[in-house]
Amino acid sequence: MSIKNLTPYVFFDGTAEKALQLYERTLGAKTEGLQRYGEAPETSKARTPQNKDRVMHACVLIGEARMMVSDVPNEGGSAGRSNIELCLDFDDAEDMARKFEALAATGEVTMALHDTFWGAKFGTLVDQFGIHWMFNCATQAK
């Protein structure tokens, strides 16, 4: 089995931490793996003084469900960006690449598949119906 999970990924414009606190208080959510843009490698375009405290990534457990949360980097505009994307987590990078290319054939690649600093191959696209997809496959043992 190549696709392990389908996870909603929700984007905020600087309010992710407040949202996490609300979900923890009202829904009993548990936040795991919170990372800030200030923790990204120095070569990251998003690692700027105005982004350093913004949430780059967090996993939120609500009951048995999981969602990912991030603040959009403060780069002077997130107009037109979807605030929800679907993240497919794979265990086979070659299968992920085939499925990425198949979905991209009638859509638009927004970030080509590439190796990341978090030890995964990752890419994004928008399908022909306007759905935003993230493809992720761990390449290193965690």
TrEMBL record:
It is an enzyme of class 2 (transferase). The keyword Transmembrane helix does not apply. The keyword Methyltransferase applies. Its EC number is 2.1.1.64. InterPro entries: Glyas_Bleomycin-R_OHBP_Dase (IPR029068), Glyas_Fos-R_dOase_dom (IPR004360), PhnB-like (IPR028973). Residues 9-135 form the Glyoxalase/fosfomycin resistance/dioxygenase domain. GO terms for molecular function: 3-demethylubiquinol 3-O-methyltransferase activity. GO terms for biological process: methylation. Keywords: Methyltransferase, Transferase, Ubiquinone. This is 3-demethylubiquinone-9 3-methyltransferase.
